[in-house]
Write a structure and sequence with these properties.
Layout lengths: L4 E2 L2 E2 L2 E2 L3 E3 L2 E7 L5 E9 L4 E5 L10 E5 L2 E5 L2 E4 L2 E4 L3 E5 L4 E5 L10 E5 L2 E5 L10 E5 L4 E5 L6 E9 L2 E9 L4
Antiparallel strand pairs: 1-2, 3-5, 4-5, 5-6, 6-7, 8-9, 9-12, 10-11, 12-13, 14-15, 15-16, 16-17, 18-19
């Protein structure tokens, strides 16, 4: 969703919106292509948006998922030493504390990454990291560590990823054409 209007103002471009404990969260980049760290939460009971704690890293083209009631912002593009760079960083938001914290970074910098939760673990699937990626990483919040798992058969970026019947499935995404 980009250029979406909510109430009297336009909301930033959003790659995805997530729902945690009956409220929706959005974050992303603006129509002006700015990197933003801001995050907003919508409460349907009051029909109102409010700002929540910002992410430590302004980013865009990141992915988001909910695991154990906490929101994860994974990878994307951000600033590093004054220039745009792909990110390995991952941040976790706790709605009860209204606070973000850094968790272990991924081994591979990725934007346009697909993420899904399966069996209490967070998966980062494909993406773009200087080229289209087929690699997949799995995060365990109990150990705060990522590990490589079986790669995709085809490199993909911008993939929609979901857990289906206890298995992870890549439903769509741009595929690097083999020649």
């Amino acid at each position: 969703m980009c250029g979406m209007s909510v109430g009297p103002r336009a909301v930033m471009c959003v790659r995805s919106a997530l729902h945690v404990r009956g409220r929706s969260y959005v974050g992303g980049y603006s129509d002006d292509d700015d990197l933003l760290s801001s995050v907003e939460r919508y409460d349907p009971a009051t029909d109102a948006w409010e700002a929540v704690a910002p992410m430590a890293t302004a980013r865009r083209f990141h992915a988001v998922a909910v695991l154990d009631g906490k929101l994860y912002a994974v990878g994307g593009v951000g600033l590093a030493v004054g220039s745009i760079a792909l990110l390995t960083s991952v941040e976790r938001y706790d709605p009860a504390l209204d606070a973000w914290e850094a968790v272990a970074p991924m081994a591979t910098a990725r934007d346009a990454v697909g993420v899904a939760v399966l069996d209490g673990k967070l998966y980062a699937v494909g993406g773009y990291g200087g080229g289209h990626l087929s690699s997949v990483e799995r995060y365990d919040p109990g150990t705060d560590a990522w590990e490589a798992v079986a790669p995709l058969m085809l490199a993909r970026f911008g993939a929609g990823v979901a857990a289906l019947e206890g298995k992870e499935a890549v439903r769509c995404g741009r595929v690097l054409q083999r020649r």
